[in-house]
Design goal:
globular, mainly alpha
Length: 453
């Protein structure tokens, strides 16, 4: 395909980071439902979702819009109530994850922090603040909140303890402690088994290259329709499709993405996944239409970057450059306000612009916050961009010893070994990438913006 590039337009694991946050968003919705019935001086709010949840994106957004309005009015009536701030934070957070709105996520974080300041010892927005801070990559704050559960005057119920364990598993994963993450997820599942833990364990297996185990867990999570909403079903289907994509079965991936679009119609993220598949088949006009639909309603620089890559493949270089400039401005603005949450995204913009110094600064910031596999790969890519090939090789070989497996790490390793003149190392890396996916070096992979690595 003319115009395609072998370099992915988004960094490795992008979809699964989005999916991991989607799990956190679904936890937020469940917490919001529980808190709405918690005893307080506030009249009981209607549940934000029905048993099956809203059937499509438009209705889900309407539910969350109304919930945000309701909780905003309650906070205005009593701005010193940490419980009201907690509920409003969760409503903003869930809406932000549904729409991809940075403004909602930033507001959720500010509200959760404010609720923590107001709350007395032995109480407070523990799981709510843990959920929100985790999604913004403030992992130490999330772990600190979970630790408060043991000091509560009233013992926490099993469901809260299970979610606390799972959040600690997430923190351990991002820290690069994969054994600790697995142990925490297992403890959470032993307390209360359900889709949330299954999704997290599936992600763990995927990172370790155990793709069949990851698939089995996701299929298991899909097996009980009464336990999941349409939004959750679509999320699980996107994850299954991403595994197919990573292992080289692109047609199967596209079928999963189409199933997700049908399961939760109107969701921008499903449209973006379908757009990239259309692009790989040369259906550029359809891909552009889908990307533009996915961009509507919020500023989504991930989709902007994907559309820019499509424009480059179509030879529309000027439009690509203008779109990349807009997305880069958004990423850098978000880094200035919330550096931990957006350093990895902005790293892609810096690498694309050839700014090796800035790329290194952003990669180092991201690595300090989350020294797990993706953080290490980003650090290696930034080192390579500075000509530090030996350092990049050392980072990637250390990563391999941890058990992490992805095509991206091996493609980068092949590149740095080639620069070092070690053809044996380069050949081993290439074979390792191809063992994961026979399409690891397909030129059309540059048009896969979500879930490829």
């Amino acid at each position: 395909m003319s115009g395609a590039t072998a370099t992915p337009c988004l960094n490795g694991g992008q979809l699964f980071r989005i999916m991991a946050l989607m799990v956190v968003a679904l936890v937020a919705v469940a917490l919001l439902e529980r808190l709405a019935t918690r005893s307080s001086d506030v009249p009981v709010a209607p549940e934000p979702t029905a048993h099956w949840g809203p059937p499509n994106y438009v209705e889900a957004l309407d539910v969350l819009d109304r919930q945000v309005a309701l909780e905003t009015a309650r906070v205005a009536d009593d701005p010193q109530s940490w419980m009201r701030l907690e509920r409003l934070a969760l409503a903003h957070h869930a809406r932000g994850q549904l729409t991809g709105s940075h403004a909602d996520l930033a507001q959720a974080l500010a509200l959760a922090d404010r609720a923590r300041v107001i709350a007395p010892d032995g109480s407070g927005p523990v799981l709510a603040r843990a959920v929100v801070t985790l999604s913004m990559h403030r992992n130490a704050d999330a772990a600190e909140e979970v630790a408060r559960l043991a000091r509560f005057v009233v013992p926490a119920p099993p469901g809260d303890l299970a979610e606390g364990d799972a959040i600690l598993g997430d923190v351990a994963l991002y820290r690069g402690d994969y054994a600790g993450a697995r142990a925490a997820y297992r403890q959470a599942d032993a307390r209360v088994s359900g889709p949330m833990t299954q999704v997290r364990m599936a992600d763990w297996h995927r990172h370790m290259g155990r793709f069949d185990d990851a698939r089995a867990l996701l299929v298991q999570a899909l097996a009980d329709p009464s336990a999941i909403t349409p939004w959750m079903r679509a999320s699980l289907l996107l994850q299954l499709g991403a595994i197919d994509l990573q292992t080289g079965d692109w047609p199967a991936a596209e079928r999963r993405f189409a199933d997700a679009d049908r399961a939760f119609p109107g969701w921008w993220l499903a449209k973006a996944h379908l757009a990239q598949m259309a692009a790989t088949r040369g259906q550029f006009e359809r891909a552009e239409t889908l990307y533009r639909a996915a961009m509507a309603g919020a500023e989504r620089p991930t989709v902007m970057d994907a559309l820019a890559a499509l424009y480059r493949a179509m030879g529309r270089t000027g439009e690509a450059e203008a779109l990349e400039a807009d997305s880069t401005a958004l990423w850098m603005s978000r880094v200035r306000s919330h550096p931990e949450a957006y350093a990895d995204h902005a790293l892609e913009a810096a690498l694309r612009a050839g700014d090796a110094a800035q790329a290194w600064q952003l990669a180092a910031l991201n690595y300090r916050s989350r020294p797990y596999g993706d953080g290490r790969i980003g650090l290696a890519r930034a080192a390579e961009s500075r000509g530090r090939h030996a350092s990049a090789r050392a980072i990637l070989e250390e990563l391999e010893r941890t058990g992490w497996r992805s095509t991206e790490q091996y493609r980068v390793l092949e590149s740095v070994c080639s620069h070092l003149g070690d053809e044996a190392c380069a050949a081993r890396a290439r074979n390792s990438a191809l063992a994961i996916s026979p399409r690891a070096y397909d030129a059309r992979a540059g048009l896969l913006a979500f879930g490829h690595h």
